[in-house]
Amino acid sequence: MGETLTALLRNRSAAVGLVIVALAVLIALTCQWLAPFNPVAQHRSYTTAPPGTAIAADGAVIAGEEGRRFVLGTDVNGRDILSRVLYGARVSLLVGLVATALNVIIGLLIGTLAGYFGRWLDVVLMRLTDTFFAFPGMLLAIIILATLNQPAVREVLVSAAGRVDPGLWGLFIALGLTGWTGIARVIRGQVLALKEQEFIEAARAVGCGHVRIILVHLVPNCLAPLIVLGTMQVAYNILSEAGLSFLGLGIQPPDASWGGMLSEGRPYMETAWWWGVFPGLALAVTVLGFNLFGDGLRDVLDPRLKVRTG
Amino acid sequence: MRFILATLIIFAVLCAGCVKPPDGTGTAGGSGGTTAGAGGDQPAELPAEYRWPLHADAPTLDPIQITDTVSDTVAKRIFSTLVKFATDGTVINDLAEDWWISEDGLEYHFKLREGVTFHNGEPLTAHDVAYSYTRLVDSEQPTKRHSLMTYVNGAMEFYAGEVDQVRGIIVEDDHNIVLTLSGPYAPFIQVLCMANFCVVPESVVEDDPEGFGAHPIGSGPFMFDSWERGERITLVANPDYFKGAPKLERVTFMVFEDEKTRFENFKAGALEHCDIPPSQIQEVRGDPALNALVQGEPAMDMYCYGFNCEQPPFKDNTALRRALNYAVDKQNIIDNIWGGLVSLQQTFVPEGMFYFWDDSPGYPYDPEKAAQLLEQAGYPGGEGLEELVLNIDTPLTNKLVAQAVQEDLRQIGVTVRIEVTDWGSFLPKVYAGESLFFQNTWLGDYPDPDTWLYQLLHSDNFGELGNITRWGNSQFDRLVGMAQVEQDQARRAELYLNAEKLAYDEAPWLMLFWKNSATLVQPYVRGLEIARMDRTPQLNNAPLEQVWFEEP
Amino acid sequence: MTDGAASSPDSEPRPAAGSRGFRLRLPPLLRYILMRILAAVPVLVGVTFICFAILMAAPGDPVRIVMGQHYNAEIADSLRAEWGLDQPFLVQYGRFLGRVARGDLGKSYVKGGLDVGPYLAVRFLNTLLLTLAAMLIAILVGMVAGIVSAARPRSFADYALMLLAVAGISIPVFWLGLMLQLVFASYLDWLPVSDMKSAVSLRVLWDQTGGNYLAYWWQATGRHYVLPAITLATVPMAIIARLTRSSMLEVMNLDYIRTARAKGLSYRRVVLVHGLRNALIPIVTVIGNNFAILLTGAVLTETVFAWPGLGRAMVLAINQYDYPIVLGGVMLMAVVFVAVNLLVDLTYGLIDPRVRYG
């Protein structure tokens, strides 16, 4: 473990990636102290203000804001872009992590069952995987989200969601249920390979039940590819969330989300470019961080897993 | 590499197939004519045709199936109606040379012009008119607007299949037709101007009822030429048009679903007019050349929010509803989000018809007054008021408006949660009265106060018939009912004024704005009149036969 | 008494070599294709079933959308009956499958009776063209980048290119599109903002370019491809670059390459001719996979550039509850996906002589 860590830190891309990821997580956790303004506070006299505009003494909405600057400008409702970008990190990371967790659980389950028990279960599960895989890109997620956004369904969601924004739940479900296919396939491959090895035979000879073999012997050996895939999946889910919010299906106003800001700012690109540019930049850097980190992890943990599946 | 070569070849072949060089009958693209305007360093020649933008393809061109503004605008150029709208909203003759209404308001007599022919040369007679109207209530035809004929004697019985013909449609001879109503209905003459009452040739439709919508034949100023689904509809001038041949040779309605694309094409000189996307308003206002090309005024296109008056906390709480009205800074929304492209709403009935409450005080932005009213309503500072759920649909500007309103209400202590839903699936809930606070939009079908006050605020029309706020007031109902049958304009105006004032006091809506028909028009386009009741870029009632091109 | 002919073992039809006793005398390649197609059928059924189930399960009402503010209960009911929306779920699904089997994809709800099949075919063609353009760019640029990287591992060029590659798969595609649009179309005005064809009349363009077909094509539609194709190409370009690099690095360490070098062949010849040819195998697979994915998933790029393609049509249809278009589109995409994957596998077999289809 120790040597893995050192190797990791020595790998340049992993190190950079780790720094970015850590920064993103930090921002997500502490944005309420970092953000200069309330992300939903509207400053009517400073709409679509360019970056660097300062609040004049008489224009403060909330006491104590005189002289503060809108470092990245404001949008058409007078909300500070920097603050919204910082809060957006929270949404993106939350969705990225939760959706990936779901993907990993489902993928692990299906991959292991298919690989271990084989025969008809394998065929059925792989057909199922193929079916989900055949849905292009985000289309299935779009269909699911559009359905979840319908009023009747949404009501159920709202009552079940409690304090959490129902929009977030929709994203968890839509992305969680559609991104597991790659993981399932890889895990299945791993299990198939591991299944024939001696230590498994030995375990069986000793009298271990299937469950024990799976949980104690197989899964821990899949950890390496799982971690790598998981990291890449977080990057993918963050991008997907942005795409879905961009299409208007994800987080609802007035909450800040990077994809949502891009979608709102799009018609104003020519007159208020800062509205769309900065959230996109934040998105790109965060995803880059996760990808770099994932690459580094792969180089260190399992060089055999080099880019092959694209 | 072979793969790359193969890809390149496939690409080239497919591409070439899509864009042929124009020669004679090349259909992959436009038709003749050169461009003027901002295009290039060409000698500016005027276009030979009018290129009219549509934001969607027309679903149909069969009059009885039309329910949308796109089909409406194309159909109105192909067909004629007995009467039609002038751009100031008054009813003028079209096919009818003369018409009069009986004293009791139950009989509408029309004398048709002589010598009118359809595009195929056949003469247009009262029989065709009768046929077209009967078709509208024929349940065996794909009619979608049979309810427009409700007041005509025997129409609904015919629709239900109980009788063989509509006894309220009487053909006296080839050029005279009478419509009798079951009760006086003042807006009726305006209803007849709608595209669903376009006259179609009986013989042609009888031959092929299903296919008529794809190859329409009418008697209007332009004849149907071709229709590339999803791309364009081309019409050519009708030289035998009974009001004189149009000055333009052709009109091509081009489908551009994206508003920015329409705008870019207008700037490049490829369209004769276009609507102004809200996001481009800064650009237009900032460019003197473009700014000079803007025409149009407040349209009869309303956008506001409605309170469900049958549910608490809005039920029976006029003070609360008025408080929310005064709390919202509507001018801010108009200036910031819409860039001045919309106008403040202060009444229930828009301008542009014989009646308008022009000195209505409206609900100007007054947070102090709002706070007072809120206290009166029983919720001082917003205490005790639960979160209000506001339902809107997905377009971007609507979301921005909702956020502005949410913030304004937050300032007086009222919490609003915005729920963006797909409107189509949301409507059933609104109709059933299950939504509390929601978007309320309406486009006037014809310029009569009845379609606003009766449909949207009368207690007969709760739910899907139009009154989604479910506000009812028996005094109001009485006034509007009387105005409906009253023949004298002045008296009607008085009744409507009283009714509106009543509704104003009770504030069933959170008034916001009227959308504008602001349109960019190329400088060489002459004679294009934009009617108040029209949406842009459809401009349904602009008399196209009077438009011509001339160098500025 | 012997007969001579009847019972001799050689006169019995012999099963083809490598099969499990099939009586069919199909060449192994054809049998492979047939099996793949058969295997694809349950996938197609599954895809449409899931789609159908999700759409129908939720109470969205396409009739409401079509009727808009002129909603009328009677007409609504008749429309519902006409579209079969009042039938139980399985009946509807069965009818759908039956119609598809006959080649009829139905008529759109929202676009007034438009035939879904031809409409989707045209949109698919538009997406195909864009995807081809994007793949061309991706392959050319990606492979060159990968080769350069592999030829000089751990050099500055290598690190720079690989960093760009990672950036390529990290940048949100729609944001990149918006940036390109902003800079090249809005500010510099070099390229058109959106759409696939110029709105200027074709005759005008023809006259303007004086009958020069290439210039004419460029003005009429070619210019419109540049920005969207570059945007769409970004991700596959990056993937191909990375894959080319790693594949070639692996191959170049193999014995026979070292032998070639030892024999004195130039470095360039070794890299390009021998290394690349063998590294091609996984690259082709990835190209094929990406092609299928792009073809069926270019939704975001099409939205940003208002490209009249299949992805955008699907998103619009989903929002409008235009079920026939959604279902037809999903089916079309699944078929394309399966078909492209099959083609890729076959190509794989052509390139790699070790693969057999027996």
Approximate helicity band of chain B: 25-40%
CA gyration radius of chain B, whole angstroms: 26 Å
Q: Indicate the low-confidence ranges of chain B by residue numbers.
A: 23-43
Architecture per CATH nomenclature, i.e. the level-2 architecture of the largest domain in chain B: Roll
Query: What's the overall geometry of chain C?
Result: globular
Beta strand % of chain C: under 5%
Oligomerization category of the chains in this entry:
heterotrimer
Low-confidence stretches of chain C: 1-19
Give me the secondary-structure category of chain B: alpha+beta
Number of strands of chain B: 21
Radius of gyration of chain C equals: 27 Å
User: What does the overall shape of chain B look like?
Assistant: globular
Percent of sequence in beta strands of chain B: 15-25%
- What's the tally of helices of chain B? 17
| Computed structural class of chain C | mainly alpha
End-to-end span of chain B in angstroms? 57 Å
Could you characterize what this model shows?
- The complex is a heterotrimer of chains A (310), B (552) and C (358).
- Chain A is built from 12 helices and 2 strands, in the order ααββαααααααααα.
- Chain A has helices at residues 2-10, 12-34, 81-117, 119-134, 139-148, 151-161, 166-176, 181-195, 198-206, 210-246, 258-265, 274-301; strands spanning 53-54, 69-70.
- Mean pLDDT of chain A is 81; it is low at 305-310.
- By secondary structure, chain B is of the alpha+beta class.
- Chain B folds into 3 domains: 15-55 and 221-297 and 517-549, D-Maltodextrin-Binding Protein, domain 2, CATH 3.40.190.10; 63-214, Dipeptide-binding Protein, Domain 1 (Dipeptide-binding Protein, domain 1), CATH 3.90.76; 298-515, Dipeptide-binding Protein, domain 3 (Roll), CATH 3.10.105.
- Chain B is 30% helix and 19% strand.
- In chain B, the strands form 6 sheets. Chain B has a 6-stranded mixed beta sheet with strand order 14-18-13-17-15-16. Chain B has a 4-stranded mixed beta sheet with strand order 1-10-9-8, with helices on one face. A 4-stranded antiparallel beta sheet of chain B has the order 4-5-7-6, with helices on one face.
- In chain B, a hairpin with a 3-residue loop joins strand 8 and strand 9.
- The relative contact order of chain B is 0.14.
- Chain C is mainly α and 358 residues long.
- Chain C has helices spanning 28-57, 62-67, 73-83, 89-101, 116-151, 156-170, 173-187, 202-208, 213-252, 255-262, 267-297, 299-304, 310-320, 323-351.
- Chain C starts with 27 loop residues before the first helix and ends in a 7-residue tail after the last helix.
- The chains are: A mainly alpha (310), B alpha+beta (552), C mainly alpha (358).
